[in-house]
Design brief:
about 90 residues; 4-stranded antiparallel beta sheet; 3-stranded antiparallel beta sheet; mainly beta; 7 strands
Length: about 90
């Protein structure tokens, strides 16, 4: 089964507050943006979906874990880097 290739475009190295905005694009293995991928903060109802080009933006705590899910693909999780995670 193919797995999602996740490219985080913007992740602050040092968060000024407790929450940060994470922006990125979800691509398949051929490099095409994937529309409709569910992007959510693990353990909450906070989430969004990718646009037609695979772009997303989500506001999460600096220590959050983000989950990416899409039918037919393996679920992927990514830990967000905060002040103590350069």
């Amino acid at each position: 089964m193919l797995s999602l290739v996740i490219l985080l475009l913007s992740m602050p190295l040092w968060a000024v507050s407790q929450t940060i905005t994470v922006k990125g694009v979800v691509k398949d293995l051929s490099g095409e943006g994937m529309p409709g991928v569910n992007v959510s903060q693990v353990g909450t109802t906070n989430g969004t979906i990718t646009d037609l080009s695979g772009n997303y933006q989500i506001i999460v705590p600096s220590n959050a874990t983000i989950k990416f899910t899409f039918v037919g693909y393996t679920e992927q999780t990514v830990s967000v880097g905060g002040p103590d995670k350069p």
